[in-house]
Design goal:
Blueprint lengths: L2 E6 L7 H7 L6 H6 L4 H6 L4 H9 L8 H8 L5 E7 L1 H6 L3 E3 L1 H6 L6 E4 H8 L10 H19 L5 E8 L7 E11 L5 E6 L5
Parallel strand pairs: 4-7
Antiparallel strand pairs: 1-2, 3-4, 5-6, 6-7
Length: 199
């Protein structure tokens, strides 16, 4: 689980003074549009020579606004990283519970973690419930995922599955879980087991 949040730089209209600077220009888009533009003026404004070479190769003219439109059409939207929450941090603060050692015994070859919600609802033993142990409950969560993967096959990044869990002294009840496979902090694949309403 690696959660990364991005913020897009201001729109061309709302943040026009910065938009040219964000692309490495010495002036804003508005100032660039107002210049009586030719190649020399564009270079002085900070537009790289190789960019102008490509522009001219594409038949670009220095009519007002044309260079700007050409650059914008070839520039990916710029995003600012404002927050990153790694899988290691999630394990350290208890949001995720690393169960990789036990998962290896169940046949998993990649790291596996449960969300805190899965752990507290289906692995921890509720007060007063008899004849249950955490190791067995964890095994059930992992083994039934292993079985579901075997039945469904590989090739998807999210898999829903079910198992019976007894959280009282009555009969076990069928519960739904899901597992996601994706890149971990080092881009290697990892598995996370979640409740259906979790992301």
């Amino acid at each position: 689980m690696t959660a990364t949040k991005f913020r897009r730089w201001g729109s061309r209209q709302a943040d026009d003074m910065n938009s040219g600077v964000n692309l490495g220009l010495d002036i804003s888009w508005a100032e660039l549009d107002e210049l009586p533009l030719d190649r020399i003026t564009a270079v002085e404004a900070g537009v790289p020579d190789n960019t102008l070479d490509d522009y001219e190769d594409d038949g670009g003219t220095y009519a007002p606004g044309h260079l700007r439109q050409w650059i914008e059409a070839r520039t990916e939207p710029a995003w600012d990283l404002i927050h990153s929450y790694t899988r290691a941090q999630a394990i350290e603060d208890g949001t995720l519970v690393d169960v990789s050692v036990r998962a290896k015994e169940a046949g998993f070859k990649i790291p596996v973690a449960l969300t805190r919600a899965v752990w507290s609802r289906y692995v921890e033993i509720p007060a007063g419930v008899d004849c249950q142990d955490e190791a067995g409950r964890l095994w059930d969560v992992l083994w039934m995922l292993h079985v579901a993967i075997g039945q469904t096959g590989l090739g998807q990044d999210t898999l829903s599955y079910q198992l019976y869990v007894r959280n009282d002294n009555q009969k076990p009840r069928l519960v739904n879980l899901k597992a996601t496979c994706g890149p971990g902090d080092d881009a290697a694949p990892v598995l996370t087991i979640l409740c259906p309403d979790e992301d």
